[in-house]
Amino acid sequence: MADSEHGHHEHIQLQYEPALPLPNGKLFMWLFLSTEIMFFAALIGTYIVLRFGAVAWPTPDDVHLVEVIGAFNTFVLICSSVTIVLCLEAARVNRAGQAKMWMFLTLVLGSVFLGVKAYEYNSKFSHGIYPALPRGMIYEQADLEYVAAVRTRLADLAQELNDEVALTERLTAEQAQLPDEKQNLPGEIEELQSDIKTAQDDLAKLTNAEDADEEDIRDARSDLKDLEAELADKQERLAEIPDREAYIEAKLAELASRKEERMKREDRITEIQAEVREAERLAARNPDDPRGALAIQDLALRIYPLHSQAGHGEDHDGGHGATLGYNDQDPWLRLPFVIAGGNMWASTYFLLTGFHAIHVLVGLIVFALMLFVRLDASRSVGVENIGLYWHFVDLVWIFLFPLLYLFR
Amino acid sequence: MSEIAETGHHGEHEHAHHGSIGPYIAVFVALCVLTAISFLTNMEFWQKQVPESVSRTIMMAVSCAKALLVIMFFMHLKYEANWKYVLTIPAGLMSIFLVLMLVPDIGLRTDNGLYGYSKERWRNVGTGLIEADHGDHEGDADAPGSAADHESTEHESSEHDADEGEGDSH
């Protein structure tokens, strides 16, 4: 505390002379920020090197990156930088209420930034663009390995549908069998109960007899135990029947309601499977024949159209939404797709923006905590420190935005 | 007590502000304008007129200018004592050095570099799509003559190829 008040003049004899003309907290923050500079420089440097060393890099359209959203986020961060610096100004002149208002605004703006970021992330995740091990849905080139992956995915989808059909059959059979069981079980149970009674009587007779054989008694006991277990089992099954019936009925209704959708999906899968087979046939015939490669490439573009590929003349841009890939038409397909350089793009994009977002989150937590504190002049060093941190976060974004969104 | 602290701080930042938020607003406006400039380089008309390398240089220059504005005014570095050099210059130098150190490792390994990608790397690198497409275009660009409707020719030709393939197999 005293470190920040080097204006003390009450204790002349013990006057404290700081080595550096700034509070310890602020010194710490600047030291921390200088390490942060190197941290982000390493990340950004790696990105630059990887990107400009890459043979292929996707355009923003290809990876559903919207530049306007990025620009909006830049604007939001600039605004939040202004609000936090105004918060500091207010705190310095002891206007605690005003300072709190600015702090709150900064918190809101930072949250907007993160919310927009989450929306952006989601738009990529929903298209299957994310880094994954051993591999995600992104393929680097349209080759035989890629078609094989598409074929496998289609087979999996078809299997899922088959499983549904099999389940329907199994449940229908069980449903038909349940009424019989329901009718027979009470009789069986009664029979068992009378059996148990006779067994109990036999056992009683045996134990009372004077010349009873130990082994006979043991056998009779175990028989009785078996009968009782069987009885418990049957009773349990009888009790479960109503629940089971209800469950089967609900499940069958659900499956029946999906039938139309299932048929549609089956048709779609068969259609694409035919295309895959055709492409594979063309490609397998002669590896040097370019028609095979072209067929696979066409298939890849139908599954996931690339704006950089569709029409080399930029003037066709009018039909932006016109080319919907299979994955967009039927999101349940989730077929593998081809973006040259897409995996490296995803890795770098999510690494850089992710680390930045973590920094934003930390800032927001501190802002939220500071809302519970009276932000008067005595706290101005604290406000200044979190402000410095926040400006640095803004600064990083100032570099990330053009590098990630605007560079072509 | 807080009064003393307050005056102490004001002494430190005497030039920064006289209780006015004017400079901050000016910096804010400048930042917005600079952002708009870098966004402008992303527009279609700009991209048609200006080479990409120029646009990139402009964007990076704009980013540096924005960073300087933020550091100088929002972070008050302009008004700090000389300790600021001790903390910022080494970190800045090291970060620049760090980036430069990375460049020869990967950045030079493109086709125009001294040490190009190995053959194997080229085979697995994600250009299959683009290259095949190019070959196709160069092949039939001469035949129809016009370069205007590339898209339609591409589709026709690939369909044509597929038909041919079927014919061969029978």
Produce a short descriptive summary.
With 408 residues, chain A is an all-alpha fold. Helices cover 73% and strands 1% of the residues of chain A.
Characterization of the model:
The complex is a heterodimer of chains A (408) and B (170). Chain A is built from 10 helices and 2 strands; from the N terminus they run αααβαααααβαα. Chain A is mainly alpha-helical and 408 residues long. In chain A, strands 1-2 form a two-stranded parallel sheet. Chain A starts with 23 loop residues before the first helix and ends with a helix. Residues 311-321 of chain A have low confidence and may be disordered. By secondary structure, chain B is an all-alpha fold. In chain B, 73% of the residues lie in helices and 0% in strands. In chain B, α2 runs antiparallel to α4. Chain B starts with a helix and ends with a helix. Chains A and B meet through α1, α2, α6, α7 and α10 of A and α1, α2, α3, α4 and α5 of B.
* Form type of chain A: flat
What is the terminal separation of chain B in angstroms? 98 Å
The biggest sheet of chain B amounts to: none
Radius of gyration of chain A: 36 Å
Q: What is the strand content of chain A?
A: under 5%
Strand order of the largest sheet of chain A: 1-2
The count of DSSP E runs of length 2 or more, i.e. the number of strands of chain A, is 2
Q: In sequence order, what are the helices and strands of chain B, one letter per element? A: HHHHHHHH
Give the count of helical stretches of chain B: 8
Provide the helix percentage of chain B: over 70%
Q: Report Rg of chain B.
A: 28 Å
Low-confidence stretches of chain B: 1-18, 128-170
- Find the structural class of chain B using helix and strand composition: mainly alpha
